[in-house]
Structure formats: C-alpha cells, structure tokens
C-alpha cells in the first residue's frame, strides 16, 4: 500500500508540475486509463499496466514476496506471491501477472495458503538454519514470512546443499548458502548500478549467484544489494557480527559525503555508529545511497580530534578550551581585520558558516572563501549555481548534456537516476573528459572549443532545441578552473541558443561535489570586494573544517586556526586546533545541490571535549571581544533565515529565479580566454574525498580493491 | 586576664545572653568585645602568627559582624550572638582545628564570598563545561 501510495504521489507531483506549464509528457492517468479489479470482494481501481500484486497492494492486502521490487524489473521466480485469480486453473504469481479489467483476485483462500506454505517449504529446503549467527536475523524477510506463512514442519530429510561464498570486495559479505535466488541483487547490478557484475551460473540445485570468475563489485552503489537481499546472503562486511538489529537506536539524518544530501538512517548502539542505511525520499535519493555514504562511518572512530590543541615548542599540545581561545585571542590581537581569512571546508554546516561570517565581519574581515577554488564565483543569482531542474526533474528530461562532470563519482545516486533516464531512451551526451558512466554517452568534444562548436548550429544543437526538457549539467570541476568565466560564457551561449531554459522548465544545472558548497554560496560566504582586490597575504587564517584548501589560501607564515573533527591536513598545519562534532553528532543544516536545505541530527554524543561547530564560533566571538548574539541553535537558525530566507523551508526546494541569462553578462564581459585542457571532474578518487572518508579504513580498502578488481589477475585496468 | 580565665568567662556568660533577649545591640557589642579579648590567645594557641596578626583577625571578625548590621529584631540578634558564641566556644575549647580557622577567619570570608566577576556570558560558561 505504502509503495503504491508513493507511486501515486509521484504521479500527482508530476501532474502538478505540468500544471505549472511544463510540457504534457507525464500526466496522471486519466480515468479511462484506470481499470477496476476485485480483491477479496473489494473493488479497487489501478492504472492500466499494473500487475496483480500492485492491485492487491492498492486494496491494502499484503502479499508476501521475495523477488518483486518496485524499482527493479520483474523476475517472477520466487513464487511467494501466489494468489488465486478466478477462472485461472492454478494459482498465479501476482507480481508477474498483469491486472486485467474485471479480474477477481483472492488472497486468503485455502488454496493460496497452501500454495504459500508449499513455496515456503521449497525455499527452506536448501536454506541453512543459521539464523542465530546470521546478521540478517531479526530483519529477514525469509524469517518473517516463514513465521507467518510457513508450515511448522518440513518433509525434507536429505542433506542440504552448500554453496561456496563469493568474494565481492571489502563491502559486501556473502554467505551464498543462504541465497534463495530471488535475483534482486543481479537485477540491481544490471539495471540500477549498470555494472554487470553478478549473474547466475548452473541450474536447478546447482544454481549459484556470483561473479563467475572471482571479481569484485565495481559499482559505487554496491552496498544497496545488502538492503535488497531478502535473506542474509548479502550483508555488510564491515559490520559483520557486530550487532543485532533490535539493539540499535535509529536516527534519521542526512548524508554529507557528497552534495546530494541523500537521506539516511544512522543506526547506533551506545556511543558507536553501527551502520548507515538509506531512507526513502523520492525527490532525492529514492532508496539508494552510495558506498561512501554507507560505509565511511568507521572513520568516526579514527583520527578524531577530541581535545583542543595549541602549538607549543613540542608541536601541537593538549590544552583546555580557555587556553586555546586565549592563544587565538593573542594572535588575533596582533593582526587587523583585513589581515584575516576564513576558509570553509567541504563538510561545514550552514549554521557555523553564517556565524563565522558574522564574526569575521565584526572583526573587520571580509575574506571568506570555500576550499578548493572558485572564491570569486558570482553568487548573486541563485539559479546560476544550483541544480535548477531538481533531481526528480531528471526523470522528465528528454536530453541530457554533461559538461565537465562525472556524476558517477560526484553523485553516484544521481548517476543511477540519469542511467534510468537513459535506459528509458533519453540520450546523454558529454563535453569534457571521457568517463565510464555505466551507460552510453555521446562524446562531443573535450574542451571549451567543443562547446563553441556545439553552439554553432551543430547537429546536436538542433536536437537540444527539439527536446522538450533538455538538461545541461555543469560539473564542479568546471567552476574550479582558472578559465571558469570563459567556459561559463560558452556554456551560457549554449544554454541560450539551445533554449535550455524555457517556460516552466529550467534545464541549466550545476552539479556541486561538496556538501557545504551551496549553503556557502547561498549565505554569501564569499570574499568581499575589498578582499578580492587585496593582494596582501593574510596573517591569520581560520579553517572551518577545511582540509582540501589550496596552498595559496594559507600562506606559510600565517597563524592558522583549525576547527574540525578529524586530524587531517588542516589540523596538521594549524597553530590552534578546536575539536568539533561530525555530521552524526550534531544538528546541522546542509543544502544539497538542488538548493534543498536538510538537517542532520545527532545520533551519538560528541567525542571527548568536542563542541558543536556553531557553538565554537559563538564562544570564540566572545573571547575575541565581538560577541555574537546567538545563544541557541534556534537563534543560529533564525540568523540563517535572515540571511537566506529559503533556508528556513526545510526539505523543500525553493525554485530560484532565472534572470534570462543576465547573470552571465558579467562573466562574458571579462573576456577571459579558455585554455585547451579538457573539462574534467575534480574528483578522481570516489572513496576518499574529505576528512572523514580519508580516515576510513573501509574506504582505504575499497581504493585498494579498485586497483585490483580481479584478485589474482595482476594490474588489471581500473575502470576509473 | 589569662587566656583560660577569659574562656571561662565567655562560657559562663553564654547562658546569660540567651536569657536576656531585650539586651539588643548592646549584647552584640559586648559579644564583639569578648571575641576581641580572646583573639590574642587564639592567635597564639593556633599558631596563626605566621599567617596573620591580631589586628587583621579583628578586622575580619568585625566585617562578619557588620554583615548583619541591618538586623534589628532582638530575637535574631540574640540568635546570632548565640551562634557566634557557639563558634567561639568551639574555638576556645579547641574543638576546631587550625585549618578551620585559616579557611574561615584568616581570609576575609565576607570578601571571599564576593561573586566571580562576570567576565563571561552564561553561554560561554556552559560552553566551557560541556557540549
Ligand atoms: S544473494 Fe540475496 S539478493 Fe541475490 S539472489 Fe540471492 S537472495 Fe536474492
Ligand atoms: S514476488 Fe512474485 S514471484 Fe517473487
């Protein structure tokens, strides 16, 4: 029922958008496209093309299932979903049977009960009875359904079969004897992830799910098969044997490993994060998350900063908070406001950024930047730096052009959505370096010149114009280039000529790769005009969780304050280190690349003497003699709403205004020349992009595994 | 008057003060004088010379009396004198030890109890304590 409601809500949402002036490609099913069926004497209407199982769901009847999954193709091989249909001589597999008008379906007859019992008995013939040592125990579909639908005895007295476990890499643990051959994992790998890693070999009793030759899963989404597997055949390797699911406390939060803001559930026991699993959000991540989001949590135990540190004669030494603040105050008293600089890191939350901005401004400093580039990006027009079409908009697009981006590494879940669109027939083209995106991409050139050529009445231009909802996706790598203005001017021309932005549809999108970036731009965490013009090197640099700063941003002679949660590059360079909380330990607003503000929630307590980021900035402001008037999280969030009102509307996207390309004029006027280097993604190593993932042992194992995806075959070529 | 004699005098008069509530301010003044008379002996007996002087001690004691200068009700004055005498008795009988006197009388308790200067906002104070 839940699922069907979701589908209905999706249909309605699409309908709403079309009411706002979008072309009429996806309308809600009109009345004549509904068919009426009877389920257990109750009449329900379902859209044409639904199957019997969906009809039963719509009627509120729960049908047991193993192989059916609403986001995967239909396999119909587990037979658990048998129901009785009038005039059919045998029970039918409801997931594989299209619903016809006037069908009379029965789900609670003795025949159905018997059929389910029989299927259950067959499934359990070869299923080991190892629930007490199985990680799926307690949340296992097979366990639950055999309790409800199974018989209390079996007639099988022979020897159960055993299957060799497969090595799928450092993330997915396999106990293949438990597999019930539902093929969900195979279909996921093939359809969603787009890597044909898994398959079935052998038949009958000898059927095995595996990779045929020993080969690791090469998808960035591979962890999702753990959720999909209805039994304990595929479980999490890093969390193996560490928990029972009923011991866990769950917290609904948001992922910060990329800029997508995937909705996650953080499961904890005591002080420890035990696992991270996705949370359903049709508008963002559907029900998938990337492997980094799922498995980087082990880093929350390693390399944590848990006490303030002050650099003394013997390097960084432990200090108390007042001592650390005093050290900063001493250094700050020697420099003037305009000699300071603040750099926000990839994982900075919006609250701490707005407070730091206020503090810096009060001290007379306007030099605020985000790490790794585009300090001077013009953020006056919001539509010029967010993903205007929204993630759900990908489903409606009918032509997609990628400019210098690699969504597979920058936002794997988005890539899966683009792939789904592509499978549905939407052509994807790319300008920039060539990447393996798991779907065919028409490559149109590598650098800025190619964009010029495209804009000049090319064949592709015509197609772009002809499309109803074209999308242009510009990668963050483009924004980080020295010749950004020139490239953006070319993109602007392309967008204008291709009429990518039209009534009711904004197809211009920027795909950011850091969780903090859009919030930083929204809040104007950007250098002031004076700071932009100034050539003087700053004498005091405040790193707000910045570990990927460019060397030029932090001069060697500067006094450096680092506020963050992991001992990484920033902390090593710092003179004073202030320990802060990580995303699983605090309330923090993160704005995803669509411009959707979402909040993380504390799942575990902070470690040691660490404090929440916004509190640190607030406390420091008082010691520096410029106290900020925000004493609670609500105060900080009110301030956030003052600066950027759309950040007060959580979980919703405020559609930005498109100023008919006016914002490009300034960039175009600067007349910078584009260089010939190919437009490339800024992320080369998916598994290690920020301080957390770099501290993760699991992620390090993944990197090693990727270098050698076929163990035993030396120096195999790496996908990307 | 020897030290022992003055101690006896104090102990003896303790009863009388309690029985005469109408004595009012005079009772307090008399009591103060009594305390002052004992101070040289206290200084010597508890080896407090190395830390303070009779004058200093007297000043401290006086400030403790003055703290209650706004009290006018005879009952309360009587009670205060009674409690003060109790204290004095304990000192003279050596039921108190040296560190009691040092912490209670050598540093001016009236002064010590002054609240911390408010250099910090409640937020910062809470911040230093925990997250
Ligand atoms: S491993 Fe799990 S998901 Fe894959 S076929 Fe077997 S039971 Fe299904
Ligand atoms: S759910 Fe229908 S056959 Fe498996």
Topology summary:
The complex is a heterodimer of chains A (720) and B (131).
Chain A: H1 2-19, E1 34-39, E2 42-47, H2 52-58, E3 82-85, E4 92-93, E5 104-106, H3 110-125, H4 141-149, E6 172-174, H5 184-193, E7 199-201, E8 208-210, H6 224-228, E9 234-236, E10 249-254, E11 263-269, E12 272-278, H7 291-295, E13 309-312, E14 315-318, H8 321-334, E15 340-344, H9 350-362, E16 368-370, E17 399-403, H10 407-410, H11 412-423, E18 428-431, E19 442-443, H12 448-455, H13 459-466, E20 470-475, H14 476-479, H15 484-497, E21 501-502, E22 505-506, E23 508-511, H16 517-522, H17 529-533, E24 540-544, E25 559-564, H18 569-573, E26 576-579, E27 588-591, E28 597-600, H19 613-623, H20 633-643, H21 662-669, H22 691-695, H23 697-707
Parallel strand pairs in A: 1-5, 15-16, 15-24, 17-18, 17-20, 18-19, 20-23, 24-25, 25-26
Antiparallel strand pairs in A: 1-2, 3-4, 3-5, 6-9, 7-8, 10-11, 11-12, 13-14, 13-26, 21-22, 27-28
Helix pairs in contact in A: 9-19, 9-20, 12-15, 15-21
Chain B: H1 3-19, H2 25-45, H3 54-66, H4 74-92, H5 98-106, H6 109-112, H7 122-129
Helix pairs in contact in B: 1-2, 1-4, 2-3, 2-4
Could you walk me through the main structural features you see in this protein, from its secondary elements to its overall organization?
The complex is a heterodimer of chains A (720) and B (131). Chain A is an alpha/beta fold and 720 residues long. Helix content of chain A is 29%, strand content 16%. Chain A is built from 23 helices and 28 strands. Chain A has a seven-stranded mixed beta sheet. In chain A, strand 7 (199-201) and strand 8 (208-210) form a beta hairpin. In chain A, 52% of the residues are buried. Residues 1-27 and 715-720 of chain A have low confidence and may be disordered. With 131 residues, chain B is mainly alpha-helical. Chain B has one domain. Helices cover 69% and strands 0% of the residues of chain B. Chain B contains seven helices and no strands. Chain B is extended. The interface between A and B is small, with 15 and 8 residues. The structure holds iron/sulfur cluster and FE2/S2 (inorganic) cluster. Iron/sulfur cluster binds next to helix 5 of chain A.
């Amino acid at each position: 029922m839940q699922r069907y409601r979701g589908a209905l809500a999706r249909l309605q949402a699409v309908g709403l958008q079309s009411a706002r002036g979008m072309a009429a490609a996806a309308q809600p099913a009109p009345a004549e496209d509904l068919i009426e069926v009877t389920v257990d004497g109750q009449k329900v209407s379902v859209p044409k093309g639904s199957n019997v199982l969906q009809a039963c769901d719509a009627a509120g009847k729960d049908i047991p299932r193993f192989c059916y999954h609403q986001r995967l193709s239909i396999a119909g091989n587990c037979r658990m979903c048998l129901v009785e249909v009038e005039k059919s001589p045998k029970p039918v597999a409801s997931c594989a049977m299209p619903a016809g008008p006037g069908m009379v379906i029965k789900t609670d007859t003795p025949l159905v009960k018997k059929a389910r019992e029989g299927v259950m008995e067959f499934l359990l013939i070869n299923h080991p009875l190892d629930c007490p040592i199985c990680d799926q125990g307690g949340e296992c579909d097979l366990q639950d359904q055999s309790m409800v639908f199974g018989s209390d005895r079996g007639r099988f007295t022979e020897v159960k079969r055993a299957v060799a476990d497969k090595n799928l890499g450092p993330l997915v643990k396999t106990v293949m004897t438990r597999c019930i051959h539902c093929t969900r994992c195979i279909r996921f790998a093939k359809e969603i992830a787009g890597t044909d890693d898994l398959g079935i070999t052998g038949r009958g009793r000898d059927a095995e799910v595996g990779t045929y030759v020993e080969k690791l899963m090469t998808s960035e989404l591979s962890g999702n098969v753990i959720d999909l597997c209805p039994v304990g055949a595929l479980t999490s390797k890093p969390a193996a044997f560490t928990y029972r699911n009923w011991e866990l406390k769950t917290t609904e939060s948001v992922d910060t490993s990329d800029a997508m803001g995937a909705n996650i559930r953080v499961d904890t026991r005591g002080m420890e994060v035990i696992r991270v699993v996705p949370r359903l959000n049709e508008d963002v991540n559907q029900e998938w998350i990337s492997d980094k989001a799922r498995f980087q949590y082990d880093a929350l135990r390693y390399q944590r900063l848990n006490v303030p540190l002050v650099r003394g004669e013997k390097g960084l030494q432990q200090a108390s908070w007042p001592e650390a603040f005093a050290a900063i105050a001493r250094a700050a008293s020697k420099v003037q406001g305009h000699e300071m600089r603040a750099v926000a890191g990839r994982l900075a939350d919006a609250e701490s950024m707005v407070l730091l901005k206020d503090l810096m401004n009060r001290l007379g400093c306007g030099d605020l930047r985000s790490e790794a580039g585009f300090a001077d990006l013009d953020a006056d027009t919001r539509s010029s730096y967010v993903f205007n079409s929204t993630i759900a908009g990908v489903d409606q697009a009918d032509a997609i052009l990628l400019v210098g981006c690699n969504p597979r590494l920058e936002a794997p879940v988005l890539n899966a959505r683009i792939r789904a669109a592509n499978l549905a027939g939407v052509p994807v083209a790319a300008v920039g370096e060539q990447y393996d995106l798991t779907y065919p991409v028409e490559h149109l050139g590598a650098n800025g010149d190619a964009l010029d050529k495209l804009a000049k009445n090319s064949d592709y231009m015509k197609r772009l114009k002809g499309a109803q909802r074209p999308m242009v996706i510009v990668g963050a790598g483009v924004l980080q280039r020295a010749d950004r203005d020139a490239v953006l001017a070319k993109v602007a021309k392309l967008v204008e000529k291709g009429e990518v932005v039209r009534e009711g549809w904004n197809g211009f999108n920027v795909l950011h790769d850091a969780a903090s970036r859009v919030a930083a731009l929204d809040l104007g965490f950007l250098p002031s005009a004076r700071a932009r013009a100034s050539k003087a090197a700053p004498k005091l640099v405040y790193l707000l969780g910045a570990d990927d700063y460019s060397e030029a941003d932090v001069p060697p002679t500067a006094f450096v304050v680092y506020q963050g949660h992991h001992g990484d590059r920033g902390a090593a360079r710092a003179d004073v280190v202030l320990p802060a909380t990580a995303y699983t330990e605090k309330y923090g607003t993160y704005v995803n690349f669509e411009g959707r503000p979402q909040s993380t929630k504390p799942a575990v307590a902070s470690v040691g003497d660490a404090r929440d980021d916004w509190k640190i900035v607030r406390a420091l402001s008082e010691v520096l003699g410029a106290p900020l008037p925000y004493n609670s999280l609500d105060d900080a969030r009110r301030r956030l709403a003052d600066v950027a009102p759309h950040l007060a509307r959580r979980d919703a996207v405020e559609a930005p205004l498109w100023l008919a390309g006016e914002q490009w004029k300034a960039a175009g006027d600067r007349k910078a020349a584009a260089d010939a280097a190919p437009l490339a993604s800024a992320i080369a190593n998916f598994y290690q992009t920020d301080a957390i993932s770099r501290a993760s042992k699991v992620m390090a194992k993944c990197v090693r595994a990727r270098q050698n995806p076929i163990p035993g075959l030396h120096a195999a070529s790496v996908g990307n | 008057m020897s030290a022992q004699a003055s101690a006896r005098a104090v102990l003896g008069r303790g009863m009388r003060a309690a029985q005469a509530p109408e004595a009012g301010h005079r009772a307090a003044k008399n009591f103060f004088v009594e305390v002052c008379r004992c101070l040289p002996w206290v200084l010597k007996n508890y080896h407090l010379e190395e830390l303070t002087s009779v004058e200093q001690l007297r000043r401290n004691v006086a400030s403790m009396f003055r703290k209650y200068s706004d009290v006018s009700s005879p009952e309360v004055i009587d009670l205060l004198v009674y409690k003060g005498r109790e204290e004095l008795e304990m000192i003279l009988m050596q039921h108190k030890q040296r560190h009691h006197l040092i912490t209670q009388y050598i540093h001016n308790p009236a002064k010590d109890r002054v609240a911390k200067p408010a250099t910090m906002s409640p937020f910062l104070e809470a911040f230093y304590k925990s997250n």
